[in-house]
Sequence to fold (672 residues):
Amino acid sequence: MRHFTYYFSRNYLPRWIVLLFDLGVVMFSWYTAFLLRLNFDLSGMEELLTPLHSVVVLAVVLFCFWIFKSYSGILRHSTTRDIARIIAAIVSSGIILTLLSLSGRIVNSLAILNLPISVIIIFSFLVTSLLIFSRLLARFIFRQWFIAKKDAQKVMIFGAGNLGRAALNAIVMDASVNTHVVGFIDDNPSLHGKFISGIQIHPVSKAFNKVIPQNKVNEIIFAIDSQEITHKRKREISDMCIDLHLVMKEVPPVKNWIKGELKAQTIRNIRIEDLLGRNSIQLDRKKIEQGLKNSVVFVTGAAGSIGSEIVRQLINFKVQRIILMDKAESDLYNLQQELISNKEHSDFVVIVGDVTNKIKLRKIFIEYAPTIVFNAAAYKHVPLMEEFPSEAIRVNVGGNKIIADLSIEFGVEKFVFISSDKAVNPTNVMGATKRISEIYIQSLAQSGRFSTQFIITRFGNVLGSNGSVVPLFKKQIEKGGPVTVTHKDITRYFMTIPEACQLVLEAGFMGKGGEIFVFDMGDPVKLYDLAKKMISLSGFVPNKDIEIKIVGLRPGEKLYEELLDNKQEILRNTYNDKIMIGKDRKHDFDDVNNMIINLLTGLDDLSRNKLVEKMMYVVPEFVSMNSYYGNVKNGEQVKKLALTEPILNTYSVNNKDRKSKNEVNEQQLHSK
Fold:
C-alpha cells in the first residue's frame, strides 16, 4: 500500500484510462436510465433497449468527449473548467441524440435511431452527475489520502477575492507543495463565514486570536491587489504576523505570472520594501511628457541606484536621446545590457567618465548638446567620506560645479540636482558637501544672470540602494547575525527607488528655478524595529535566533535625519501632495562662487581638519559629530580658525571671461 500511495501521489493517470472510465460511466448511465424510465421493470427493457442503441449512444458521446476534451484534465486537480467541459460534452450529446431520435420518427429508414427522448433526458442528467462526482471524489481522495497532512505546512490566505482563489488553486494543484490551507482572511464583512472550495473565510480578529493559534498556522499568504489594501493596513497585518512569528508570503502581480497562470513556486516571501513602501504615486504624466519632448537628457551617476532608475523611467517617456555617464564601468555595463535586452529605447549613449574631468565633460556637451541634465553623481557613504573629505569635496562639490557651469555655458534648459536629507543641519562631511552644492545651485538660480532653470530635489534613504542599511541587514541575517544597529533610537526616512525617481521627474518639471523640492518621506522608521521586522520576515525570532547588536553611532552619524531647516527654510505645498517646496534664504552668487573656489583650492595639500574648517565657513550650521575634527568639545562648538589663503587656483572665478589653458587647447583641437 505504501508503494501504491507513493506512486499515485507522484504520477498521473493516462488520458486513455480516464476516457475508458468515462465511457464505462456512460454505458452504466444509459442502462440505468432505462431502468429508471421503466420503474425497474426488466421485462419492458428487452423491447426498448437494443445493442444498436448502445453503439449509437457510445459513438455520439465519444465524439463529443473528443471535441470538448473532457477527459484531458488531471482528476486530482479538477476545476470548474473541467466540470464545464463535462457539462458541455454531455449537453451536446443529448442534443445530438434527440435530433437522431426525431429523425428516426420522421424517416422510416432511420427508425432504428428512434431513441426514447425521456430516456435521453434521464441519461444526460445521470451521466453528468456521475462524471462530476467522480472528479470531485478523485480530488477529495487525493487531498485526504495521498497528501501527508501530518507534515503539511499550514497556511492562511489573506484575501478572498480572485487572487485568493488563484493562490488556493495553485497550492492545491501543485503536488510538490505539501501545504494545507486552513482558511481565508478578509476585511470584507459580507464574506465572513462563507466558504471557497470548502474553506471558510474568517475576519482578521478571529483569524489571529483563535484560528491561527488553534490550528498551529505558520504562514500567511497575502493574495490581494495593491489597489485593494493600503500600505498602512498591510503593515498592521504584517505586525500581527510578526507578533505570532508567522512567515509572510505574497502572490506576485498578474503580469508576472508564467503564461498567465499562477504557480505555487512564484508565491514569494514578502520583502521589507513591500512593507515600507506607500500607495502608488499619481504623476502628472502630461506635464512630464511635454517637458521631455524631443529632449536630449544627460544623466550623471547613471549606474547608481537613483541614476539607473531615472534612466529607466526616462525611457518610458520616449525622450529623443539619453546620455549615461558613470565611472563604475561594471555597473554601467550591466545597465547597458539591460537596456539593450529590453529593446525599449535604442537611442542611448553610454560613457565611462568622471564628473571632475572638465575636459571630457566639455566634449560631451559639445558633441551631444544635452537640453536637460540630471546630476545624480556623488559620493554618499558617510563613514568613508569622513575619512576622505578631499574626495567628497572634489566630487560632490567640484563635480557639481563643473556640470552646472557647463550647463550654463552650453545653454541647457533645465538642471536637476539630486541632494539628500543629510544636507539639512549637516553633521558629517558628506551632508556638508551636499549642502554646499545646494547653496551653489541656488545662488546660480537667484542671480538672474542665466537662462538655465536650476532645480534641487531633497529626500532621505532609498530602499535597496547600494550601501543602504537594508542590503546590509540582509547580508548579516544570511550569515546568521548579529545584525548591527548603531543606536536603539536611531531613525531614518525611507522611500522606494522608483518612488523617489518618479518624484524627481515630477519636481523637475514643476519647478521654475531656484526651488528646493522636499519629498514627503512619510514617518521616520526606527532602525532597531526595521532590523526586528527583517529578521522576522526571514523566519527567525529576533534576539533569539539572531542577535541585534548595538554598536554605537559612527563618526558623523545623526540620531535622526531632517528634511527641512526650520530656522531658514519655509515649506510651501504644491499640486502634488508628495512634493513640497522649501524656500531657502538668499545667496549672493559672487560670494558663494568665491567661497567654493577657495574650498576647492589645494584639496590635496590641506589637512583633513583644514578642509572641514573651510566647509564650516561655507555652511555655518555644519557641526561635525566626528570627534576627530575637534570642533565638538563638551557639547559646544569650538571657534573656527581663519581660512588659509588659496594655494592653488585651478578653478576660474568667472566662467564667461576666463578659460583654462586646457579649455582653449580643446577648442583649438576641435577647430582643426
